[in-house]
Design brief:
heterodimer, A: mainly alpha, two-stranded antiparallel ribbon, B: 91 residues, 2 strands
Chain lengths: 567, 91
């Protein structure tokens, strides 16, 4: 019985009941739900459960295998840590949204067919937008609308792809959708696009940098964990070994780091950084070897924790200071020492310092590329690694906690935030040191040893010399100063270009309409004048005739009739 | 009281990380660490390089330095094209 209950259901149903509780018990209940859900998930053995028939098709509500297991576990851990981080929060709306969102993501990674996946896909989209809207600002409202349209659009593409694929193959099962090297059918391409939107592929990415920085302090932590990693799971399940993913992933690792360099909002820097990290995973999925797929799964696992940690530290700054703009911050280490330390652990992890989690996962993907002798991909991933060191390893902690002293002395983060950050930081160190534990639960046990001399030394060289470059650029004042400005990205197309185009087209239509109306009115006026001349009182056809004239005309008409009759 | 209002303002920048001597110490420490990472290459031989570049002395060191500088410089160039006032979308 318990097996056929889709994982995450406890969080979804329990989350919807949270508003019925006392205000002070709501956040604790959210934490209890996440822990209870994890226990249930761990007690559920691998296999397929909850098969139901719908319109002649068999839906598999629960399919737990090693891939869904590892994502299910990390989604639960992220939900627990985020729930602890949100313990101080007294906003039922956010608790409900967070529980339904996290539960939906967990259900999605255990879905055995595309229709069940679609259901959870849309559930995560609709529930998560409330975490953006909960900021209660005009900006967050507009950003949330854009986010919702794009996310729901992704779901519509997924459903369309599932239907077309059913027509093509007669199956809606969610397994490998395209063999490596094979071309994609129309249905598969639609599903690929749906996954690509949620995974923030280049040019489809900007909902991420648009919406996440507008979310609430706690909402951004939840958001950072689930949506994009659900897409990574889906790609790993359906498109492992699809070569185009290698190049898509390479672009994803590179372009966000340029935007991150010049971005002033540090939570937006983290959003670009998230995009860059997804690129590493996408490359791994595209390479498709056992080491690469396991590397992508391991990197997703580690990434969720250190990215949540970084979002939590910036959230704590936002909570205490009221802003995360680099131009407004600096010197916060003095009054927020614990937050500073935890942020630096997250920064070290994402940069890939040995003994921290990023090192043992990212290096798997880079090594997988090297083992396949993909020189260009290897070079790109090295450049991206130096870029990560720039925007997340150095920029985030440096400008928030050190740099020029802003003079602000906020209080340290609340105890629950510190506890959540401490747990995430412990995971970052624990995974970096105790990596065999993680490797054992990967889809395939990798034949890989991260702590070899060449790995450790070359990685340290890359990171330390990148840090040295930062020092040199700062001392020579070549490092770009933080500015109170924003940067245009692809959202400019639908926030500025399209509205303007529609405005121009509207004005053009209005002018053309006025012109045509003018012509028609002028011609109509002429016609009316002509008619009034003909049929008016003095007109030939409308004027009043005398009786004599009428008699003459009547006689003529009668004569004509007679004449015609005899002809 | 609102959390944002609890932020207190203080005077001159004091603290360990703002003392020039300490900053110099940190930089020296970084340079020493960089040199140590280079020197560590003499402690092993990479028996299974995938690419020739992996056998070049200090490849990832100078590559990391150069990549960092290039990324930052490209970012500066990008700023010329995409930077706008903060109220750009509000106007």
């Amino acid at each position: 019985m318990i097996h056929s209950l889709p994982p995450g259901t406890l969080m979804i149903v329990g989350g919807l009941l949270i508003p019925l509780l006392w205000r002070s018990a709501q956040s604790a209940m959210a934490l209890v739900l996440t822990i209870g859900s994890l226990v249930l998930f761990l007690l559920t053995p691998s296999g397929e459960y909850g098969q139901i028939e719908l319109f002649g098709q068999s839906l598999v509500l629960v399919r737990i295998d090693p891939l869904s297991r590892i994502f299910g576990v990390i989604f639960h851990i992220a939900a627990i840590v985020s729930a602890i981080y949100a313990l101080h929060l007294k906003d039922a709306k956010q608790h409900v949204a967070a529980m339904v969102y996290a539960g939906g993501a967990i259900g999605a990674c255990c879905a055995g067919d595309l229709i069940t996946l679609f259901f959870y896909w849309e559930l995560t989209a609709i529930s998560s937008v409330f975490l953006v809207w909960a900021s209660n600002t005009e900006r967050s409202y507009r950003s949330g609308i854009r986010y919702l349209i794009i996310q729901v659009g992704s779901g519509v593409l997924l459903l369309s792809g599932a239907i077309v694929r059913y027509v093509e193959t007669g199956s809606i099962r969610f397994d490998l959708l395209v063999e490596p090297g094979a071309s994609m059918s129309a249905g598969t391409l639609l599903i690929f696009l749906a996954f690509g939107i949620k995974c923030a592929f280049p040019l489809l990415h900007n909902w991420l940098q648009d919406a996440y920085p507008e979310a609430t302090v706690t909402g951004a932590v939840f958001l950072s964990a689930f949506t994009t990693k659900l897409a990574i799971y889906s790609l790993a399940r359906g498109f492992a070994g699809t070569e185009s993913l290698i190049w898509i992933g390479c672009v994803m690792t590179l372009f966000p780091i340029l935007f991150a360099v010049i971005e002033n909002d540090l939570r937006r820097v983290l959003a670009y950084s998230l995009n860059n990290q997804l690129g590493f995973m996408v490359v791994g999925i595209g390479i498709g070897t056992d080491l690469a797929i396991s590397g992508a799964a391991a990197h997703a696992f580690c990434h969720i924790l250190y990215k949540a940690l970084l979002f939590m530290s910036m959230g704590a700054v936002l909570y205490r200071v009221g802003t995360v703009k680099a131009t407004e911050l600096g010197g916060l280490y003095k009054s927020m020492p614990w937050t500073t330390v935890f942020c630096m652990v997250g920064a070290g992890s994402i940069a890939g310092f040995p003994l921290l989690s990023g090192f043992i996962s990212k290096s798997m993907i880079i090594t997988a590329a090297a083992e396949e002798h993909m020189l260009l991909v290897w070079i790109v991933l090295l450049i991206a690694s130096a870029g990560v060191m720039e925007h997340s390893g150095i920029k985030i902690p440096f400008f928030a906690f050190f740099s020029h002293d802003s003079g602000k002395r906020p209080k340290e983060a609340p105890w629950n935030m510190l506890l959540a950050m401490g747990i995430a930081a412990a995971f970052c160190i624990g995974l970096g040191v105790g990596f065999p534990w993680l490797y054992r639960y990967l889809p395939t046990l990798p034949d890989y040893e991260p702590y070899t001399w060449p790995h450790v030394v070359t990685q340290l060289q890359l990171l330390l010399f990148a840090a040295l470059a930062f020092v040199v650029l700062m001392l020579t004042k070549l490092y770009p100063a933080e500015l109170r400005r924003i940067n245009l990205d692809t959202d400019w197309i639908y926030r500025r270009l399209l509205p303007r185009l529609i405005g121009w087209i509207g004005r053009g239509v209005q002018q053309a309409d006025g012109l045509v109306r003018g012509w028609v009115m002028r011609d109509l006026k002429g016609l009316l004048e002509c008619l009034s001349q003909r049929f008016g009182e003095r007109g030939l056809l409308g004027g009043t005739w005398t009786t004599g004239v009428m008699a003459v005309w009547a006689t003529i008409v009668l004569c004509l009739c007679l004449l015609l009759n005899y002809l | 009281m609102n959390e944002k209002e609890q932020v207190e303002m203080s005077e001159a920048p004091q603290g360990w990380f703002y003392q020039p001597a300490n900053i110099r110490l940190l930089i020296i420490g970084l340079v020493v660490a960089c040199l140590a990472s280079l020197g560590a290459e003499f402690l092993y031989t990479n028996d299974h390089p995938h690419f020739d570049a992996e056998t070049w002395f200090g490849f990832q060191a100078w590559f990391g330095f150069a990549a960092f500088v290039v990324v930052v410089m490209l970012g500066k160039i990008l700023r010329i094209f995409v930077s706008r006032p903060e109220d750009y979308y509000d106007s």
